[in-house]
Amino acid sequence: MTSLGVMLTLVGAGYGLGFAIASQVQTLNRPDITVRPLAGTPPMLSTYLLRRSAEPSEPMKRFLQRAREEFLPKGDEPAS
Questions:
Q1: pLDDT of the residue at 52
Q2: How far apart are CA 50 and CA 62, in angstroms?
């Protein structure tokens, strides 16, 4: 999907189903679409940080270090 709008149009037209995050569902006002929460424990979502290959600036280095400390499981090293 290229956008939430395209997905909603396709779902509303009967071409399939879609997944959305809670904040998107809260503002959804489409009588042609039924929203149902998924049951069970929410799955882990893998998230990636993308940056250019060049040497990062000092502020970027600090941000990357902070992100590692906050989100990377202890003992794991990021891929280079």
A1: 85
A2: 15
